[in-house]
Fold:
Amino acid sequence: MTTVAVLIDHRDGEVTRPALEALTLARSLGTPVAVWLGSVPSADAVALVGDYGATEVRVVDAEMRLAGHAAAALGAALEDADVVVVISTFVTKEIVTRLAMATGAGVVVDAAGAEIVDGRVETVQTVFAATWNVRTRIHTERAIVGIRPNTTQAVPADTPGDAVIVPVTVDRPATRERVVAVEPVERGAGVPLAEAPVVVSGGRGTGGDYALVTELAELLGGAVGASRDATDEGWISHEHMVGQTGTTVTPALYVAAGISGAVHHRGGMQASGTIVCINLDPDAPIFEISDFGVVGSLFDVIPQAIARIREHRAG
Structure:
């Protein structure tokens, strides 16, 4: 049976939802083993990854602040793995690229799914600002796949894995860089933008007032996004920017409020499950890719939507 190593994304010792999505996908490719970089996980974290099918939790108990160190740690933990699955983020893309160069593995990032076809891993992804869907088959002996969040539904395994902790030791490689200072950036409340199942974004049509956009996002349990124009104006921080040079999102529901739909923005959200837009301009490009559109002011439409949602939940 194919061994599939899954790099577990965790924050403050808590397993993230995208990590459970990766474990779910890994079960369709073979037998998943979890790889945990950092201090030994809690019993609850170990039990959780076991519920999603992991037969082992390979722990590299070391601080890996450089991508080269993380790639070496990951490589030591998956010597017997034919397939490696990670969540596709800026950090993991650099890590798996280094790992692929060191091991000769084939790598695909930003995939929306993967399966075994004719004995090889084959991925599905959207490219060119989500205008094409392509399939890529990896022909090397080892395949590395970076999966976008929200592209696989996280489902516990029918038969949980044993999830036994297996310590892994690794020698840090010599590098030409060194970390001289680390200053953690405070995370905002709520789910991170790239992982959110619902994203409500506001653009130039907000006029800088994000109160309604934020209220709707919180009501739906989602995250707040923004267009490049809005972040360039300084109305909201750049960490909220959705687009080709910002964050690429694939939520189940994307709401674009007061966003015209420039190519830059569309490239970062076009692969969302359901797209809803609100715009005063009936000819705005965002309507071309929307599943449901409302021509009107977001300051009129969003309050009505909030009221109906609350009324529905109360009933």
About this structure: The helical segments are 17-29, 43-51, 67-77, 90-103, 211-219, 228-232, 263-266, 298-314.
